[in-house]
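Could you help me review a protein record that somebody else here produced? Do not assume that whoever made the record got everything right. The record follows directly below this note.
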Amino acid sequence: MSEIHPAFIQAPEYRPKLKVIETDELPVIDLSNDTKEVVSEIGEACKTWGFFQVINHGVPLELLSKIKKTSKEFFDLPLEEKKFVKRDEVNPLGYHDSEHTKNVRDWKEVFDFLAKDPTFVPASHEPDDTQLRTIRNQWPAHPPEFRMCARNMLERLKN
């Protein structure tokens, strides 16, 4: 086993204080419920647990399996390949592997994309600035099904 790079090591005072939580059931959010109820349940689950399971979301199991498969294929690619769609100051969408928590690098990779493409956002944080900036999704060349799986999932969630 190789050594862990110091960028990934959290100072002892910032490490989580582990505690055992005993429960019969983790939070399950039913998306077929009333919107206000769902929002309240999500808020409570995030506050109490930090995560939850979603049911009745309308995405078929076959599509979920394909999304998992193509996502794994993408994240298993060499870093040089993933960097072709790396997000930056100009484009906040795409691949990213450098998030930090309390100045320590997180042990994760992400791929951000928007449901509405293109999306228009304010060009600056200045209140008087009325200009808009266009943000577009960027998609990897490999695996070729990655973009289609994402689009199919978003279409299912809209309905």
